[in-house]
Task: structure prediction
Amino acid sequence: MPPKSILKKTGPPMTERNGRPVNQRHLDVALHHANILEQRKAVEAQVLDSIMTLMEYPPSPDADPKRPSAADARDFTAAVAAFQPADYDALIEERNIADKCGYALCPRPKMRARSTAKKQFVDTDKGVEIVDRKVLEVWCSDDCAKRALYVKVQLNEEPAWMRTGGHGEKIELMVDNAQELRTALPVRTKQAAPAPVKTEEEEDLDDAWAALDNAKTELALERGEKPGAVSKANNSLVQDTIKEHESSNAPPEPPTLPSGSTMAIEGHVPRHNRPKDEDEDEDEQDWDKDLNG
Amino acid sequence: MSDERQPSASLIRMWRVWRTTKEMMNDRGYQVLEDDMNMPLDEFADKYGRADGEPDRSKLNFSAQPGEEMLAKYTPVATKKDPEPRPQIGTIWVEFNSDENVGLKQLRDYMQHLVNGAFYSGIMVTVKPMTGMAIRLLRGSATMSEGPKGGVEVFVEQDLLVNITKHELVPKHVLLSEEEKQQLLKRYRLKATQLPRIQSTDPVAKYLGLKRGAVVKIIRKSETAGRYASYRWVI
Result:
């Protein structure tokens, strides 16, 4: 007996469940939203992962926060790009618990306050200030604080799964060796071997398809999608068939009062508003009127 | 200086936390020594106090084995495919963390320790609430391959100062085994989704370590009926 597959059989799309027909559109909507949620979960897991790696940054103990190595700087900016400012704060908190300077590119331990008192005196330009010990023990130096906050202000407030691309994706570092980092960008790999020669017609066709693909990916980038992620444009949900409103040349009509009595209250016309002749005929409650009158 | 040493406030606090933890393990069905649950303060101070009168948290850690009843309760119903199911419970490791702040690092170390020690599940009791990221890791850890099979629970010391189940307004909660759950659903011709619900973050649900999908029987006092039982589905 051949082994039986445990996978579901892929037949034609299900059109009936429990005897009732399934609305394909409802299924599509549900699937679309489920995919968006899934994507959101993936982004959150990625942020958590990044924080865990950045907690133990930089890899070498003698790294210099002023002149980070190109690889460190690249990894750091790439990881941080998906962060919200709150995530960045969480990273600083985690690093402090691990007794490290809050700036992820700095290998030194955080500053130690002079005593273990809750509040500390600090000399500033304006005189002596009283500061929480926690605030004091975040960075190793003021310089690191400046560099770390320089990154924080560039972060996007919007969560990564809702971002529309195009802006704010590039994080700049405050470094002294900016020139070096720029030149140390990843070298482009060599071009693939030349494809077999094609006829001119085929080439034209291929060019057209390539242009279409290019345009599509550019459009996706503009919407803030990453390759492999769920597309925000859903062909089946948003249709691009345009329906035109038919215009008629008839002149507009002025509004008119609805026919019948305007004094009706939920369909009932009160007695004293009724036309006189209607009131004249035999009524069950005539005696009532006579009494009151 | 008098011979009698006055236990410090933090030691008394720790004593209460520790006793509640032992009671909690007992209520869940783990094997706990009777003496541990009723240990007087003096004995506790002798055993776990340091010279300076502070509690020594690293000595408080303990592991517990599930009892017979608990093993039976956590065993899923036998099916054709799995005629002899294994109980979904095992040795638990309870750790009293002494760090001021607990973050990702401590939580991950703890999970690693649980895996290395082949513990089924773990409870960490912390001095202060964990950081937000650590809570996020904990939430996601149920589906992760990292960490122990039975999951990790985290309690803050403050929440364990008093045993909430001993309060007169808290009714008795009893976890149903898989078999009892099936019987209940069959008896009343229900689906689990048709039961009333209880959140897994509910204080008593946390105390009993209830997992999503379990059914808990709640027995209340009733003026007219004497006792009244209701059932809730953990979500």
Notes: The mean pLDDT of chain B is 88.
